[in-house]
């Protein structure tokens, strides 16, 4: 008979061997990661692999999507510095894991997904998280009905198309995102000030580009 997997043990190992060793030091963030069952947000045949530090394929979508690694996601959250009173928008929420974790930190979370099948899956998986509202729409357009946001976290990479999201930031709001592809990609945080939105490098990171954030193809004669 196959032994049962102790996911709580795997979750603690993820925190100790992946998050803490990669400079994720905020105790509120660490507690949030410990409070959410990552195995409930991955494909059924990937549950036992839910806590390894790789991008997990997202089940059920019309296009190939991935879930950020625990380390990259945790560092993005720490870069965004969410507070308990903050209103957060997660762009590219897929099955809802990132929104679930942020719901343990912030006051409220809007989980935006463009793929209808993934959005439906997220609604089911997030039903027990009372301060999360799953919504469906194009990712680069954000969710203006809930704006302005104190934190916007993009759960994937972008090559272009951030202007609308920047416009949905509150004063002093932070937008945490992975920009670029491959070895040239990095995590950046944008902060809205009185007169402009400024950018600050966070750390080296890469992920799959989310739908709608691809760089326009150049016209070649």
Automatic annotation (TrEMBL):
<dbReference type="GO" id="GO:0005737">
    <property type="term" value="C:cytoplasm"/>
</dbReference>
<dbReference type="Pfam" id="PF01135">
    <property type="entry name" value="PCMT"/>
</dbReference>
<dbReference type="GO" id="GO:0004719">
    <property type="term" value="F:protein-L-isoaspartate (D-aspartate) O-methyltransferase activity"/>
</dbReference>
<dbReference type="GO" id="GO:0032259">
    <property type="term" value="P:methylation"/>
</dbReference>
<keyword id="KW-0489">Methyltransferase</keyword>
<dbReference type="InterPro" id="IPR029063">
    <property type="entry name" value="SAM-dependent_MTases_sf"/>
</dbReference>
<comment type="similarity">
    <text>Belongs to the methyltransferase superfamily. L-isoaspartyl/D-aspartyl protein methyltransferase family.</text>
</comment>
<dbReference type="InterPro" id="IPR000682">
    <property type="entry name" value="PCMT"/>
</dbReference>
<keyword id="KW-0808">Transferase</keyword>
<protein>
    <recommendedName>
        <fullName>Protein-L-isoaspartate O-methyltransferase</fullName>
    </recommendedName>
</protein>
